[in-house]
Amino acid sequence: MDLDRDLRFSIFISIVFLIFIIDTHRVESRGTCHYFSVVKKNWETALDICMGMSMCLADFDTEKHFRILSSLTLSHSEYWFGLNRNFTEDWSYVSTHHSRRYLPLESGLSDEHHNCAVIRSSDQETFGVWAARCEEEKMFVCAESIFCMKEHQFSRYSSGYNSLPRHEANACRR
């Protein structure tokens, strides 16, 4: 009986912790909410946190995504997102396993020992994508996704294509 109560309490604390560390800087893009973390974690832990909230590390895979980033005032200059080559030889997104589709001009993914990608501010107005060691701790961006690591997630959107319309004024509020 005490073991069951302890397990429920542990799960409750974990959920509160996840909400605390991720609930900041919500931005809507193409119908998908992006959640910018307030703590630094390595890439794998960031992925686990996103999946624990029925999301995935974000796909920044279009020029429009990077234009939206440029319009934000972000508190840090580097963020983990879903692009990696941990599971395949080529760079792909963890949510869809699609190959990278778009990279800004100021990008560099050539380092063979760095298998995770970060979005890095090149200056005040532009962002690029760079390879980094997955073990490094950085801020990260989660987004709603139908799949993540081939597991079904229970959010309403995937890669910005709506499966349910959002009519509320502040669509990104949880």
Automatic annotation (TrEMBL):
Pfam families referenced in this protein's UniProt entry, alphabetically: Lectin_C (PF00059)
Leader sequence segment: none
Domain of life, per lineage: Eukaryota
Record-annotated membrane-spanning stretches: 6-22
Keywords: Membrane, Transmembrane, Transmembrane helix
Protein name as catalogued: C-type lectin domain family 2 member D3-like
Boundaries of every C-type lectin domain copy: 29-143
Provenance organism: Drosophila pseudoobscura pseudoobscura (Fruit fly)
Record-linked PROSITE patterns: C_TYPE_LECTIN_2
